[in-house]
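User: I'm writing a tutorial on reading structure tokens. Could you give me a worked example: one chain, its sequence, then its tokens, then a sentence or two explaining what the tokens reveal?
Assistant: Sure. Here is the example chain.
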Amino acid sequence: MREVLAQQIIDSCLEMVRLGLNQGASGNASVRFEEGMLITPTGIEYSQMTPEQIVYVDGSGHFEEGKKPSSEWQFHLACYKSRQDCNAVVHNHAINSTTLAILEKPIPAIHYMIAASGCKTIPLVPYATFGSQELSDSVAKGITTSKALLLAHHGSIAIGENLNKAMWLSQEVETLADMYIKALSTGLDIKILDDEEMDKVIEKFKTYGLKVEE
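And here are its predicted structure tokens:
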């Protein structure tokens, strides 16, 4: 099972590169495993990565001797501790999502697909140095309300019941970010869907959509 999950992590990372969501060795991915998680190692390009290099980190943050997990391992672990429905985490530096993160702009309810996050917006968490406890604490707080977050001046995170769902949501956030940037560029007023409508759509998403299998 471990080797299968490790290969799925690598395949997801390669898919992020193919889709233009990441470049080189940027970003990272993980899955819940045993009492902790399996996560990409630090500083290795995805095209060179092997299942044996995927790192196991336990629930206390201890990892295997001779292996070094992604520098962002703390916020991955925070996601698993914050949400029992989270079994996979993907993080990337996709252009549009990261552009909004640089502008410190969350994505409001410009489109009903925002509800795929389980929230009425794609929230923004404050900037903190990558790999820091401060960033992990912000992610732990933000992820309790939304399955997707923008990290100020950094990138985005998406979680899911499995890697396929986390990847799907990550792509959807990037599409929504693209829409929002284009809408902002017109200089026109942007109508935001009201809370009542978003509540309806969020409820629908509990039984419809996101039917992506592992």
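What the tokens reveal: Strands lie at 28-33, 36-39, 55-57, 88-92, 124-125, 148-151, 155-160. The mean pLDDT is 94.
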